[in-house]
Amino acid sequence: MGGKRYNRRRMRTETASAEAVTKLLERLAFQVNHTLHGPGADSVHDLRIAIRRFSQSLTLFKSAFAAQDVKKIRRRLKELMELTNAPRDCDVALKLLPKTALPSAAALEQPIRARRKEAIQLLRPELRRWAARKTSSKWRAALSVNGNRPDADRLPHLLKRVVKHGGHAKSGEDLHRVRIEAKKLRYSLELLRPGDTTPVKELQSLLGSINDARAVRQLVADLGADAEVERWFKKRQKKKTQEFETAWPAIEQILRASLDQLRQPARKPMVRAAGQASRAQTKTG
After folding, report:
1. 144 near 64, Cβ under 8 Å?
2. Domain range list for the chain
3. What region, left, alpha or beta, does residue 56 occupy, with left being phi > 0 and alpha being psi -120 to 50 degrees?
4. Nearest CA to 94 among 113, 122, 121?
């Protein structure tokens, strides 16, 4: 009976895993098509999320695809993500510039829109090729039919990395790395342990604000912004970094507690343990 229950539980897990990967792939296909026909700020943002979520599913469910296919898929995802970086930075800049309330900031809006237009012109051909080659359909057909169990060691590993690097992050590059790791952790939790991910979302939001200020600061400097505008974004980046440093101890404590729980071995059910004790007494009697 125990073996049958285990097999049924394993089959349910593998089926759920396959469905999760398929749904993420379908979502990615939808966002590629949606962005191709309407590359607005929200579309590009949602496309980036779809890429990250599906990419993380490849890490969690290693057997979802044949090993030789994974490298190719990852390369295509990376290429597509890189083409969305410039439009995304422009979108964030257009959102943040009005908050400066600086007269010289308004003059940057047109150059930023022009740069975004150029970036979209580079992105669109890749989106068209994606659709023309029926990339998502081919990947769906390549999904393993042998079942795909999640890699149970990934969550503790991701948690450990976020805790370690979050506590030692000092530079903008360090904080950006923690931000990416926090995204991977959040998407992994949502796939493997659906529930309250508020601490990770809070961490992701804090790090996102820092990265936004950093990215826009670099963009406006490249476009020849005056010192006053650059100084505003430098101050904003510093302020958001201080907010992260203030919030980190409480977030770290929650993440460490979660890590301890994941590391604890699963306990045997009480009924089963009681049955084993009863049988032992019978034998000795």
Report:
1. yes
2. 1-148, 152-264
3. alpha
4. 113
Is the CATH code 1.40.20.10 the one for domain 1-148? Answer: yes
CA distances from 272 to 6, 11, 90, 264, 285 (A): 14, 22, 60, 19, 20
Overall residue count recorded for the chain in this entry: 285
d(C-alpha 58, C-alpha 144), whole Å: 12
Distance CA(139)–CA(22), nearest Å, equals 9
179 neighbors 214 (Cβ within 8 angstroms): no
List C-alpha distances in Å: 133 to 26, 74, 75, 119, 128.
Answer: 15, 16, 16, 22, 9
Helix or strand or coil: residue 151?
A: coil
Distance, CA of 118 to CA of 115 (rounded, Å): 5
Tokens of 143: 């999904």
pLDDT digits (tens, 9 = 90+) for 94-146: 999 999 999 999 999 999 999 999 999 999 999 999 989 888 888 888 776 55
CB 85 within 8 A of CB 55: no
